[in-house]
Amino acid sequence: MDLKILNPEIQEFIGKNICISISKLALQKNPFPDVDWISILNQIEAKSKAKDKLPNWFSTKNIIYPSKISIEQTSSEKTASYKASIISGERLIDLTGGFGVDDYYFSKKIKTVVHCEINSELSDLVKHNFEQLNISNIICYSGDSLTTLNTLNTKWDWIYIDPSRRNDVKGKVFMLKDCLPNVPENLDFYFKNSNAILIKTAPLLDISAGLLELQNVKTIHIIALENEVKELLWELHKDYSGNVNIKTVNLLKDKNETFDFVLGEQTKLAFFSFPQKYLYEPNSAIMKSGGFDEVSSFYNLNKLHKHSHLYTSLDLIYFPGRVFEIQNTFAYSKTEMKTYLENTKANITTRNFPDTVDTIRKKWKIKDGGNVYCFFTTDENNHKIVLICTKIS
Questions:
Q1: Residue 170, pLDDT above cutoff 70
Q2: pLDDT at 19 over 60
Q3: In what order do the strands lie in the sheet containing 256-263?
Q4: Are 68 and 39 in contact (CB under 8 A)?
């Protein structure tokens, strides 16, 4: 960690060049020859990435950033804040501390937080940043987290782990055993040190596969930010053996969309019908959860088809996702397409439909955009249909 980067003139230069093209800046002569030009450019690029994702870091003076890739991979402040709402108690240890965003929010709920990071330079950087952020209840340890956990020999209220995929498993199916640390292998050791474990994984991990690798899973939180699934949170409690609770949340600018159900509970029956007056498309967190019949049952909505995952009703209701009013429904055929959509402008979505969006646009010369929303899908009689809609929310 080069503290020369904190020179007031360099910090001012970094601030003035936020969001400026790095390739353009790289062609300039380094105005600060005592400091590596690549390091300065890295600070500009990383801080630019933090502007919307990490507003507290962005607005705080003398923050030092790691690489832009580290900023891209770290939790956003919004998802970190959600994680903090799950935990409680006096002591938490984070075995994979990284840039420390999660721990910053944990420290607002927990009296003592320990940040473990195997990279000593990153550990020093994070410690420096916590000082700038006026956080005094986080202790930073560098080195192997298993060694730190064993050395401290403390009973923790929570252990938090964000395992990363090993570089040698690219292209393979995502499995927790292929990550560092290897959580399934170390689970018994973790439970000797805490009765509660929170594991963050990428949304790429299949829920059923994760359940095969883990024990004592009480709740799985599926977290989306602006309708993009960002992470799965696995809440494990020692000796728990009941059904798994699924909690989905879509964090939006002005509200949070939530939908919860119990995995393994008596199967909920879905209802089916042809398209009615309104159309409902679940948000991405619900889509990841697989609770499609539960949605139909809970909201008393009809599905268009077993595999379409679109819902309809005669009366308008609140729904965690996009809501549309259906203006027209017709069979997917050459005659109908030429009549209603050829050479027009529309937003296109496909659900349980053989053609891709690009194929449909090219075939029927449909431009992207506008206020018309078209869904290409399959009805309960396995007929390919098109729904022309206007968006409500």
A1: no
A2: yes
A3: 138-142, 112-117, 91-94, 158-161, 196-201, 228-237, 217-225, 244-251, 256-263
A4: no
